[in-house]
Write a structure and sequence with these properties.
The complex is a heterotrimer of chains A (about 425), B (about 190) and C (about 160). Chain A has about 425 residues and is mostly helical. Chain A has 18 helices and eight strands. Chain A has a single domain, classed as Cytochrome-c3 Hydrogenase, chain B. Chain B has about 190 residues and is of the alpha/beta class. The longest helix of chain B is centred in the last third of the chain and has 11 residues. The N and C termini of chain B lie far apart (about 70 Å).
Chain lengths: ~425, ~190, ~160
């Protein structure tokens, strides 16, 4: 079978052997002498939320230092995108942060739109907001279930996934796929919402607040939960900023920074919602913030659904150099056929220049850096993903806490390894 | 507390560093400043600490490879972009106080690319720089941790360089499936 | 079953050893609690309330490979992860089965590049391939039932 990987010199492969000397300077001197214990956690560990490997230095049960090892899910997405045209590369971005694929689509699509200077019509923007907030709910639901399981509350997962199935059902209605929807495209969305979509969302909005109350009844005042979460994994606001944390992990420390408010995109400035803030920067505050974000998302969704009923019009850009014409036009207009053919074979040219665009995903800031070539494929695409940053800050959060707190801290920053390794 | 008025980073940098500011570009409301890479640490620290700028957060560090021929002294692209060397590393800074972003760009030479590390100024740069060192092969001098980040320790090459092949394997379809499965290394117990 | 049909219900069931053992193996096939990528989320969905894998005797996920019978490779397998998964497979006690869940695990899927192993069958032997990116929980259930069918067909001679 033809394999085009570059030749790996065999002596190069065999020469490498791990040794303790490599860790000199990264763990304390006491670990080198054997006074403290080095414990390997992962990559196959149920509480690392995927394939994260942690090298923990333990003094008794206390964490002295922590060295995360990532890359077990490095998929080469950025390199693969360089090989594809802008539109065709979009489905690859779904699979980065697989808990909220819509946010990835949005980050990539918004970046391409910025590079091309492409406007999105109003209806398209509203549909995007609906999708993004539903994705936020779905992602937080998985976080809630798995975080609770990590901390010993087994039944929450069953409740959380019950509601998540309903959100996934809506995504399937929109795009035909439950998870990897590829629905948000450069220039708008793939198609208009089907007729039965809005009633389903309304029904969900009607039921969901009571369900959030149920989750809170299970956890928020639960003494075991509070014992395990309060005062654990504390990160001070200035440290959080220095390490570049974003999203609920930063807001848990009390820093009021939400890109939906600060640098609004897709018309978020026209919605009325609050940004919940924590005080202590511990696991419990990060939990509370996400619970409150459910309610704020409901607020946004209620407004967006009401708007979607009145605002009609195109749902994707009418600039057919960048967005395909309607299928129905293909039978009537030769120009539409040409545009369609050109878009799906060659794509479109983007300027030989660089842009950076960031959106607020459920985990924090997803930034997309695109450097075009002037032709139909990008020179470089780089995603700044929240999980990557959060895992790099894990050693700061974990230092001094117990080994059993480690799973609580990992769960509370809500990492996705696909998002981290890309 | 009174907040000092926002100042234009380009003017302030030109004033402080003079000739070291090699090139400035505005594109889609984003400012890119190319600075002499020998002064990287000073410039980043200056941008973080100066009143009126306060770029207190490092959003992203990304590297780009202008292989094969989109760079050089006589490169003449659209708008006459300034690309003296093959590799460029961009630091995307964010000022939360003034709510604006800035991209500071440093170039690194093709043979043995090296840049000073920014981990002393922004701890967030730790892994972002390690990723670039792993995937692009740019060495960050002074970085405390020089191990690979994403690829296995014994990997050969830097995958995100433009001259590194994507590593495609032949896809099996019904017409060539027999041929491929004959050579495919199926595992056994 | 020949005796009971002649003498009526004696309170005993006669069967072959093969059938009894295979019935036991299919009735409580414990999967390894192990997820790689996107498919692991759908695997979790199929374990959760709506799809409820415990209907097939699989509610118990074992976190250690020593106690697991079934390895569900859920997601893309990178070259860095490949040695780990081979070790997990080697640590599992016989009898053991493998389901390759999703396109990435089965053939590399959309990621035909330097980082991804083009099919987990290059690393470990696979019994059932489940297509989809990611497969719906129903598809995974179908794959598991297919595996059960396969196990029911095993003979003493194959046990070794």
């Amino acid at each position: 079978m033809a394999v085009a990987t570059p030749p790996q010199p065999i002596e190069e492969q065999r020469r490498w052997e791990g040794s303790l000397d490599q860790l000199r300077g990264l763990v304390s001197e006491r670990a080198i002498t054997g006074e403290t214990m080095l414990l390997n956690m992962g990559p196959h560990h149920p509480s690392t939320h995927g394939v994260l490997r942690l090298l923990l230095e333990l003094d008794g049960e206390q964490i002295v230092s922590c060295l995360p090892d990532i890359g077990f899910l490095h998929t080469g997405i950025e390199k693969s995108i360089e090989d594809k045209t802008y539109e065709i590369a979009l489905p690859l971005t779904d699979r980065m942060d697989y808990l909220s694929p819509m946010s990835n689509n949005m980050a990539y699509a918004a970046a391409v739109e910025k590079l091309l200077d492409l406007e999105v019509p109003e209806r398209g923007q509203i549909i995007r907001v609906v999708c993004l907030e539903l994705a936020r709910c779905a992602s937080h639901l998985v976080w809630l279930g798995t975080h609770a399981i990590d901390m010993g509350a087994m039944s929450v997962l069953l409740y959380a996934f019950r509601e998540r199935e309903r959100v996934l059902g809506m995504f399937e209605m929109l795009s035909g796929q439950r998870m990897m929807s590829s629905y948000i495209r450069p220039g708008g969305v793939w198609r208009d919402v089907p007729d039965d979509f809005l009633p389903t969302v309304k029904q969900f909005l009607n039921d969901f607040p009571a369900k959030v109350d149920d989750y809170e009844a299970l956890l928020t005042q639960n003494p075991i939960w509070k014992d395990r979460a309060q005062g654990v994994g504390v990160i001070e606001p200035d440290v959080a900023l220095a390490y570049g944390l974003t999203g609920p992990a930063l807001r848990g420390s009390g820093v009021n920074w939400d890109l939906r408010k600060a640098q609004p995109y897709s018309g978020y400035e026209t919605y009325d919602f609050n940004v919940p803030l924590g005080e202590h920067g511990d696991v419990y505050d990060r939990y509370l913030i996400r619970i409150h974000e459910f309610r704020e998302s409901m607020k946004i969704l209620n407004q967006a659904v009401a708007r979607l009923e009145t605002v009609k019009g195109p749902y994707r850009s009418q600039n057919h150099k960048y967005c395909p014409p309607l299928r129905s036009e293909l039978g009537q207009s030769m120009e539409a056929v040409i545009h369609h053919f050109k878009l799906w074979t060659y794509g479109y040219d983007a300027p030989d220049d660089e842009i950076y665009n960031a959106i607020e995903s459920p985990r924090g800031e997803i930034g997309c850096y695109i450097h075009g070539t002037g032709a139909n494929k990008p020179r470089r695409v780089h995603f700044k993903t929240p999980s990557f940053i959060h895992i790099s800050a894990l050693p700061v959060m974990a230092k001094g806490y117990l080994l059993a707190d480690m799973v609580a801290i990992i769960g509370s920053v809500d990492i996705v390894l696909g998002d981290c390794d890309r | 507390m009174e907040i000092p008025a926002a100042r234009n980073p380009v003017d302030v940098l030109r004033e402080a560093f003079g000739e070291a500011v090699a090139y400035v570009k505005e594109f889609r409301d984003e400012t890119t400043i190319v600075v002499d890479s020998a002064l990287a640490t000073e410039v980043l620290d200056f941008l973080r600490a100066s009143p009126g700028l306060v770029y207190n957060m490092l959003s992203d560090v990304s590297a780009v490879d202008y292989y094969p021929d989109d760079y050089g002294k006589d490169f003449d692209g659209q708008d006459g972009d300034y690309r003296p060397e093959r590799f460029a590393v961009s630091y995307h800074l964010l000022s939360m106080l003034y709510n604006r972003r800035l991209r500071v760009k440093f170039f690194a030479v093709e043979d043995d690319p090296r840049l000073p590390t920014a981990t002393m100024i922004f701890p967030a740069a730790n892994w972002l720089e390690r990723e670039i060192a792993d995937m692009m092969g740019i060495v960050f001098e002074g970085h405390a941790d020089q191990r690979r980040l994403l690829m296995p320790d014994n990997w050969y090459g830097h995958p995100h360089r433009r001259d590194y092949p994507l590593g495609k394997e032949t896809v099996a379809f019904s017409f060539n499936e027999a041929e491929i499965s004959k050579h495919k290394p199926f595992a056994t117990d | 079953m020949g005796v009971s049909s002649k003498l009526g219900n004696l309170g005993i069931v006669t069967t072959t050893v093969e059938q009894a053992v295979n019935w036991g193996r299919t009735g409580a096939m414990w999967p390894l609690l192990f997820g790689l990528a996107c498919c692991a989320i759908e695997y979790m969905s199929s374990q959760a309330s709506s799809y409820d894998l415990s209907r097939f005797g699989m509610e118990l996920n074992r976190a250690t490979p020593r106690q697991a019978d079934l390895l569900i490779v859920s997601g893309r397998l990178t070259r860095k992860m490949a040695p780990v998964i081979r070790q997990l497979y080697d640590q599992m006690a016989e009898p053991k089965w493998v389901i390759s869940m999703g396109d990435c695990a089965s053939c590399g899927g959309v990621y035909n590049n330097y980082a991804i192993v083009q099919g987990v069958d290059e690393i470990i032997p696979v019994d059932v391939y489940v297509a989809g990116c990611p497969p719906r929980p129903e598809q995974l259930l179908h794959g598991i039932l297919t595996l059960h069918e396969k196990v029911r067909g095993e003979r003493i001679a194959d046990w070794a």
